[in-house]
Specification:
The protein is 41% helix and 16% strand. The protein is α+β, with helices and mostly antiparallel strands. The protein has a two-stranded antiparallel sheet.
Length: 87
């Protein structure tokens, strides 16, 4: 880690990410995080939607895996209808 910063948690459980850290990581208002905790360690991991090109690669990989598992479009449509309650 480059620099160590400190912060405090408010009575509402809010934690301010120090400005130096926000700037270094390019964090903007509305950034979303996955929060993981174990014993005395809390980890914030930024999450963001994949870029269009990255999404295409993810979708292609999912299609290959579905095909390798023997799934067809009709199988997926049937499951979606079932989950939505459309019989």
């Amino acid at each position: 880690m480059e620099n160590v910063e400190t912060t405090r948690m408010s009575s509402k459980g809010q934690v301010v990410i120090p400005e130096a850290v926000r700037n270094r990581l390019g964090l903007k208002a509305g950034a979303q995080f996955v929060v993981m905790g174990d014993r005395d360690v809390v980890i914030l991991k930024t999450i963001a939607a994949p870029a269009r090109g990255e999404f295409a690669a993810i979708a292609a990989k999912a299609r290959r895996q579905a095909r390798n598992a023997g799934l067809h479009g009709a199988d997926i449509a049937r499951v979606v209808r079932k989950v939505r309650g459309d019989r």
